[in-house]
Amino acid sequence: MSFIINENFNTKSTLIGHLLDGSRFVFSQGRFDRWCIFHIREHKAHAVRDEEVFQVMSHYAFGHARFMLYRDFLNIFNKVTNQVNYDLVEKIAYMSKAYPKPQEVQFILLFLYAGMIAEENKEKAILKKFIKRLGVHQVLIEGMSPKVAANYSRGKGWRELQLECDVRGFYSNNFFSLMSA
Fold first, then answer.
1. In degrees rounded to 5, what are phi and psi of residue 119?
2. Which of 34, 112, 118, 165 could form a disulfide with 171 if both were Cys (CB 3.0 to 4.6 A apart)?
């Protein structure tokens, strides 16, 4: 659902980045915290959900494109902190130009970047940005449906989700030593 933005919304928002199509992503107050990602286009704001982006991303889950997109995602993942790095935002725009649909890829990667920043800023989130990596891996590498991947963590404890990450080899290396004990 979209709404028309006003000056109050603008003053309470933090720019994430401009997209190639002239729209932009911002952080602003959502239902739960101030780390809600809004897509702003023509003075209207839309709170973007993982499921929407995972659906678009699923078009790349076939052939070589999935590995290329996953590699670019990992490049971004490794540079995520709890603050927006505008040099990295520019790099995302540049990376996106290597794809047949650069605007679409920039939308995906910039949203994922913002989502990881949001996770890094959530006080009670233990897995932080790794929760996004799990979802991206599930869609691009495992071929899981976007809806299932986007909602996969709901109702699961952090230990179970950490184990899911461990099994895929990207949270800690302790999993295999624990399994052999």
1. -65, -40
2. 165
